Amino acid sequence: MRKQHLIGKDVQDGKMLNRRLKQSAFILTKNKEAGFTLISLLVSIIITMTILAFSMQILHVILTQNSSHSFQTLQFFHFVEDELLGSQQFFRDDNKLAIINENNEKVTYSRYGNLVRRQVNGRGHEIMLRNIAEYTLEDTANNQILLRVETEGGQLFEKKFSTE
């Protein structure tokens, strides 16, 4: 009796034939190697660095928003001080800082809503400072005027100007 009927199509003369799997888009082959490769490590490092870079930018934006109010207010004090240096006289008029400049014009700094505005001879509307909660002027000892500005964020700034 021949054993030919027991022999399958992959076996010939007792030996297994080397058959290659056909590559197809519909057949997934399993790779028995597990672990990280250099490419997967590089991809994970790139993703981590991208997340860190964006988080640093967001943190920078959050921190500079508070300091921008400080810068604006200090710049406002600098503008007022420059105008006072070139003036003939200045005084407090209600809650307005009134300055008589070298051209004999009356320049006033006053609160207008949540703004501080500058006017010349009661005309114009030059915005000097935004987002303020309080703007007060006080006469102090030694012929000084205290200008106090509080921002909507709660930061308080004060500057004294001597009237002499």
Automatic annotation (TrEMBL):
The keyword Oxidoreductase does not apply. The chain crosses the membrane at residues 38-63. It comes from the Bacteria. It is found in: Cell surface. One of its GO terms (biological process) is establishment of competence for transformation. One of its GO terms (cellular component) is cell surface. Keywords: Competence, Membrane, Transmembrane, Transmembrane helix. This is Competence protein ComGF. The lineage of its organism: Bacteria, Bacillati, Bacillota, Bacilli, Bacillales.
